[in-house]
Every structure is written in C-alpha cells, then in structure tokens.
Design a protein that fits this description.
368 residues, seven-stranded mixed sheet, 14 helices, globular
C-alpha cells in the first residue's frame, strides 16, 4: 500500500474513532462554564447576534495563547455578551472533524492538521486566520545510548503520530542525514515509533524508545526523567522561527460572522502582547488553565524550560508552513497540496493596524 494512501486512511480512522478521553460531544472535552463568562460588562451586546462562539484548542503549552487567553477571560471580554465556549482536544484530526461539523467555530491547531484539513476539503472549509506560536519542539535522547546526532542512526525515536507536524519534521531531518526510513512503517536506518505524547515519558522510562522528537511540555518531561536535548528544531529554521500553532476558522463562520472573528483575533493579539510582556505571570496562567482542563498542573522543572522555548507571535509564519508541506510531500505522506487560499489574514491585519502593530504576510497563499 502506498504511504500516501495509508496516511490518508490513517487520518480517516483516527478521525472516526471515538477517543476515550473525549466527552459525549464526540470531539473534545467540553469544559465547564468559566466564571469569566458570567462577568459580562453591563450593557454589553452580543456580537453578530451570536449566543456563543465555540473555541477549540489542545492542552499543550504550544497552545499557550488559548490557555492564557481563556484563563484571563480575554476572549469573553472581547466577545461581550456572546458567550465563549471551549473544547479541549488531544489530536488534530478530531479538532478538524469538529470544525467541519460546526462543533467548533475557531480553533488553535498545528500546521500539519491544518494542511490536511484544507486539502481534504479541496480548500472549501477552513482558513488560517492568524499565528500563535513558534518553536517548542526538540529531539531529546537517552544520553547513555546517544551522545551525538550521528548516534541516532539505528535507534528507536518516538514521534507523536504518523504524519503529524513533528513526525514530518523528523522524517525530513532523517532524509537530510542521508538515511532511509519507510514513512508508513517507520522502519529503516532509524526506527520511528509513533507514540502518543501522554505515553512517551513512560515509554522512555521503560527503555522501549531511545528518544523522541516532540513538542513541549513532553520534551521537558523527558528531560526531567534524565534525557538530554540533542537538537532544538528551531536551529534548523531561518531566524530560528517556524510555525507550531496557528488559528483556524470555518470559512462559513468567517463569512457570516466577521465581527466575532475579529473579536477573537483581538483577544489573541492582546493575549500574546501580555504574554510577551509578562512571561512569568503568563506561564502561571497557562499552567493554571492546564490544571483546570486536565486536573494536573506541570511541575516547575518541566514548566520552566518548556515555556522558555516557545515564542508567541501573531505572525502565522506562512512561508514555514509551505516548507512543512513540502517536507510532507518529500516524505511520501502527502501528494502535492494546493495551498492557495489557505490563509485569510485580512481580519488579523485589520486588528494589528488598529493596535499600531506591523501587519503580517501570507507568503502568496492568501484567499483571493
């Protein structure tokens, strides 16, 4: 079976399976109403006549804008009397399915799920409307088994999921070393072991993997278990910047409710500005939201290094998304995608201009 076919079937299976950790809605865990939702300013009005805006994100530090923005009540403040409702996801395919079905309107998500969602719908469902984060991805290894990059050959290295953002990046790095790996099976000069981030620390402790190419906070969790950082993915990119989290929206929602979209984007811009001005307080807020969402906060030895490795930005870093798509094509995981129109940065640039900030570029992939 060709790798591309297997990849697509794998996505379909993942999207169709009822994830055990998800709530009865079938997509993501639907959180309790925030107290912030009750703190609507007197005289506030509904935006675009909407009762609510449904927002999705992952419980990852790389989705820190959403975590902090929710914790600080920024989205609710921007939406006025329109309620901000939230769902927390564990995997990109389930969030894309939720967006496609209308279970969420706007979401924070990684570049590979966004690319896959856009191409699978022939460009008819989602748009990327803003950036959120760069960086926060590392190759961490067992220092007793791997002392240099060349020692990765012949070892078992975990990535989160077949065809996910980190999996594509690792496969591309392997190819650049001149090594061969079958993308579908993960077998070759390096054994690529697809392992859920929640399981990866235990897999490392048991010795079933020798390292992992993973996002934060999983990378720092492994370091806390004795692993060492062998490579920061940021070092492989120009200016050490690459997209790890973007903001997406249903095209129909963007067309029908532009003021609501602008409100969420304004809250995102304000949140990123506050995060960058108050990194310690922002780190605390993100961790508090993680505890609310999952019942468990991150310990300082994991939280502190993880947070430092992530840069929060409104810029979607569109050129790097296009490069990541090229990497997936080279790995045989994606046929040449048509990404023209995947971005609509008009609402974001309107917000940025109003804030007196620099506008951002879509690298020629904007909606016409």
């Amino acid at each position: 079976m060709p790798a591309t076919t297997a990849f697509r079937r794998g996505l379909a299976v993942i999207a169709a399976l009822p994830l055990l950790t998800l709530a009865a809605c079938g997509y993501g865990s639907e959180a309790d109403d925030d107290s912030s939702a009750q703190k609507v300013a007197a005289g506030a009005k509904k935006i675009d006549g909407l009762d609510s805006v449904k927002i999705g994100y992952f419980g990852n530090l790389t989705h820190g804008t959403a975590l902090v923005g929710r914790n600080k009540g920024n989205f609710q403040k921007a939406l006025g009397a329109t309620e901000a409702k939230y769902q927390v996801f564990n995997a990109g395919p389930s969030e894309i399915e939720a967006l496609n079905s209308g279970a969420i309107d706007i979401g924070w998500i990684g570049p590979s799920p966004a690319i896959n969602g856009y191409t699978k719908s022939a460009g008819n469902n989602l748009r990327i409307i803003g950036g959120s984060a760069s960086g926060g991805v590392k190759l961490v290894v067992n220092p007793k088994k791997i002392k240099s990059l060349k020692d990765v050959k012949g070892k078992k290295i975990a990535t989160p999921q077949l065809g996910n953002t980190q999996d594509v990046a690792f496969l591309n790095w392997i190819a650049e070393q001149g090594w061969k790996v079958d993308a579908e099976s993960g077998k070759g000069d390096v054994s690529v072991v697809r392992t859920d981030n929640k399981v990866t620390p235990d897999a490392y402790k048991s010795g079933s993997i020798d390292g992992a190419w993973v996002p934060e906070p999983t990378a720092s969790k492994l370091v806390a278990e004795g692993a060492k950082v062998l490579l920061d993915e940021g070092d492989l990119w120009p200016d050490k910047k690459f997209v790890i989290t973007n903001i997406i929206v249903r095209q129909a929602f963007l067309k029908e409710h532009p003021k609501a979209v602008e409100a969420v984007l304004k809250a995102s811009v304000d949140t990123n500005k506050w995060i960058n001005a108050n990194p310690d307080a922002a780190k605390t807020a993100a961790n508090a939201q993680l505890k609310t969402d999952s019942g468990k906060a991150l310990p300082a030895e994991v939280l502190d290094p993880a947070w430092k490795s992530i840069q929060f930005t409104d810029d979607p870093l569109a050129a790097t998304l296009n490069t990541e798509a090229e990497h997936a094509v080279k790995a045989g995981l994606l046929e040449n995608p048509k990404l023209d129109g995947i971005y609509d940065l008009t609402p974001l640039n309107k917000v940025l201009k109003a804030e007196g900030a620099s506008t951002v570029d879509d690298a020629g992939l904007g909606a016409k």
